[in-house]
Amino acid sequence: MFAKFALPLLSISALASNVLAAPFNPRTQSLARRYGSFDNWGGISSFDGFDNFYGEDNFSGVVSSQVVVEQQEEVVCQSISIEIVQQRLLVLQEMARQIITEQVCEVETQTVVFQQFLSSCSQFSSDLLRTSGRHVGYDSNIVSNFGSFYNSDGSLSTSDFGFSGSDAGQSLIVPSGNNWDFSSSPSSVGNAFNAAVGAATGN
């Protein structure tokens, strides 16, 4: 049994080491480039139906449509303390760790589903940089499930929220008020991005 899973485990372990060592790069670290499907991958039962969420050959959900919702009141971004923003994002980060470690027992599945999460999030970077051709926003229907993450006793909920990955973007809210300027933003944002990556990698 161990020999059956040894090679996949070594591959995933190497990939996980790369992820911890440097920022996630979907072009060089994408599991989708190595495997077309993860349904019942390696004979591990927790992979059953894995591809149903985003669809086969759509590991990170990049193949999806967007439907912008018309709001009676326009949603406008607001500038608040960056530390407040970082606090909220850290909460989401730790929640992701809790979900993966408490609700998945197989290390192989933990690793792959986390890679899927990282890869999906990384798509938003190209949206922010206006290189993807997609709107910069969020799905209000998906976000509305946030309050159902925990049961009244504080334990993680196991209820089915009733959506799949293909539903993301079908109720899109696009906040206005940002300072993106096509004549100047690409270079300034690109410089900031490169500086952040350089600082993270020590280059």
Quick summary:
The protein is an all-alpha fold.
Q: Give the strand order of the largest sheet, numbering strands 1, 2, ... along the chain.
A: 1-2
Count every beta strand, where a strand is a DSSP E run of 2 or more residues.
Answer: 2
Task: Report the portion of residues in β strands.
Answer: under 5%
Give the integer mean of the pLDDT values.
81
Tally of domains: 1
SSE string: HHHHEHEH
Helix content: 40-55%
Characterize the biggest β-sheet: 2 strands, antiparallel
Amino- and carboxy-terminal Cα gap: 42 Å
Question: What count of helical segments does DSSP give?
Answer: 6
> What is Rg?
19 Å
Query: Which structural class matches the secondary elements?
Result: mainly alpha
Low-confidence stretches: 1-29
Dominant shape: globular
Q: Characteristics of this structure?
A:
about 200 residues, two-stranded antiparallel sheet, mainly alpha, single chain, 6 helices, signal
Set out the fold topology.
Blueprint: H1 2-21, H2 26-29, H3 82-103, H4 107-128, E1 138-139, H5 140-143, E2 172-173, H6 185-201
Antiparallel strand pairs: 1-2
Signal peptide: 1-21
Keywords: Signal
